[in-house]
Inverse folding.
């Protein structure tokens, strides 16, 4: 997979930058215990996220970040997550 097939992901809180880098996909917590994945070339997207874990997948590496509630925005392979922790 080349760099054109990766997402640029930034995960922030009010006080800190939790993650800033590239990855193959991100999984975010949805309503009622569900989750959803964002892959490269996803359609523009804006949604609430809920309590749970945000997972950033890059090859065989997975980073997890606990999340209360927040928002996620996807535009042109760039993902911005703003969350409370």
């Amino acid at each position: 997979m080349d760099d054109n097939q990766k997402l640029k992901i930034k995960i922030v809180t009010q006080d800190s930058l939790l993650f800033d880098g590239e990855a193959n996909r991100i999984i975010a917590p949805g309503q009622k215990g569900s989750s959803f994945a964002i892959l490269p070339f996803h359609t523009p997207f804006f949604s609430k996220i809920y309590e749970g874990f945000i997972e950033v997948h890059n090859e065989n590496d997975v980073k997890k970040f606990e999340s209360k509630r927040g928002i996620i925005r996807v535009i042109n392979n760039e993902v911005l997550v703003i969350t409370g922790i």
